[in-house]
């Protein structure tokens, strides 16, 4: 079971450092955004949704960025859909404060004329939004922190307008398996976050009634010059272990050394590998 309070605290603390090390997360999100834009161009739900017409004029279209973090994708989404109102939603208040402060600090005229984001602190499994409120949902590497997939997709379907698009990425169980294997040589506790299998995601999606526009799985191996570099990066990202069974105390020097020795067995050439198992989905509400 994932502890949402710990997630919120961890990512709030990492708001100031997240962008320094989120290069892979951005790469994944930009790929997702490309898939998303292709789907929208193929069949734009806003243009076909009669429910958003009022007196012959189109009402504002909302795009909800679930797990928006530092708001990196705001401008990217507005480039794809210039007419949207971007809504950043995150469980971590610290992330939303960072986005708000960044917006207030933009003083040049071009940035002042840009649309201000709407910000909401909330859980993806309990969206504080009206039925059919949004035409688009976007989420990059955030939904792996959800505990209840049927509830997640029920909420997503509820808030989406007819023909609305839900694009997201999440992580699979092969993520950081080298680190898991190394820790298994130290003790039998949980040190690395556990994520769900692809089949579990697909089962919940199908049962929710969403149609699948795109489904893709990609495993990427990142290379690090040292295990310490990897561990520091995870800390700066806020991606701490939030599963049950984790060790509560700090890692003792002897245990850390044993971890480093165990991880060294995974080393190939000059680099230490770290696998990321990424699922890409683009769904549509019927």
How would you describe this protein?
- The protein has 286 residues and is of the alpha/beta class.
- The chain has a domain at 4-171 and 195-219 and 278-284: Vaccinia Virus protein VP39 (Rossmann fold), CATH 3.40.50.
- It is built from twelve helices and nine strands.
- The chain has helices spanning 4-13, 18-21, 23-42, 45-48, 74-80, 93-105, 109-113, 149-159, 177-184, 198-208, 227-237, 253-263, and strands spanning 53-54, 57-58, 61-66, 84-90, 118-121, 134-139, 160-171, 211-224, 272-284.
- Residues 45-58 have low confidence and may be disordered.
Blueprint of the fold:
Elements: H1 4-13, H2 18-21, H3 23-42, H4 45-48, E1 53-54, E2 57-58, E3 61-66, H5 74-80, E4 84-90, H6 93-105, H7 109-113, E5 118-121, E6 134-139, H8 149-159, E7 160-171, H9 177-184, H10 198-208, E8 211-224, H11 227-237, H12 253-263, E9 272-284
Parallel strand pairs: 3-4, 3-6, 4-5, 6-7
Antiparallel strand pairs: 1-2, 7-9, 8-9
């Amino acid at each position: 079971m994932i502890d949402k309070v710990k997630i919120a605290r961890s990512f709030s603390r990492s708001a100031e450092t997240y962008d320094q090390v989120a290069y892979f997360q951005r790469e994944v999100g930009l790929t997702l955004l490309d898939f998303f834009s292709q789907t929208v161009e193929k069949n734009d739900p806003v243009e076909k949704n009669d429910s958003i017409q009022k007196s012959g004029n189109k009402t504002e279209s909302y795009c909800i960025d679930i797990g928006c973090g530092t708001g990196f994708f705001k401008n990217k989404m507005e480039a794809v859909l210039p007419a949207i109102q971007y809504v950043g939603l995150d469980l971590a208040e610290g992330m939303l404060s960072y986005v708000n402060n960044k917006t207030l600090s933009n003083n040049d005229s071009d940035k002042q004329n840009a649309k201000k984001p709407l910000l909401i602190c909330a859980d993806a499994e309990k969206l504080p939004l009206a039925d059919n409120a949004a035409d688009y949902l976007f989420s990059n590497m955030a939904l792996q922190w959800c505990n209840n997939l049927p509830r997640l997709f029920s909420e997503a379907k509820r808030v989406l307008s007819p023909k609305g698009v839900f694009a997201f990425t999440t992580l699979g169980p092969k993520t950081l398996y080298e680190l898991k294997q190394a820790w298994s040589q130290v003790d039998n506790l949980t040190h690395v976050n556990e994520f769900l299998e692809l089949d579990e995601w697909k089962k919940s999606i199908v049962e929710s009634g969403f149609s699948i526009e795109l489904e893709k799985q990609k495993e990427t191996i990142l290379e690090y010059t040292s295990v310490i570099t990897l561990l520091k990066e995870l800390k700066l990202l806020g991606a701490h272990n939030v599963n049950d069974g984790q060790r509560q105390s700090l890692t003792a020097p002897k245990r850390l050394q044993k971890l480093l020795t165990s991880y060294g067995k995974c080393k190939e050439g000059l680099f230490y590998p770290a696998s990321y198992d990424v699922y890409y989905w683009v769904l549509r509400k019927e």
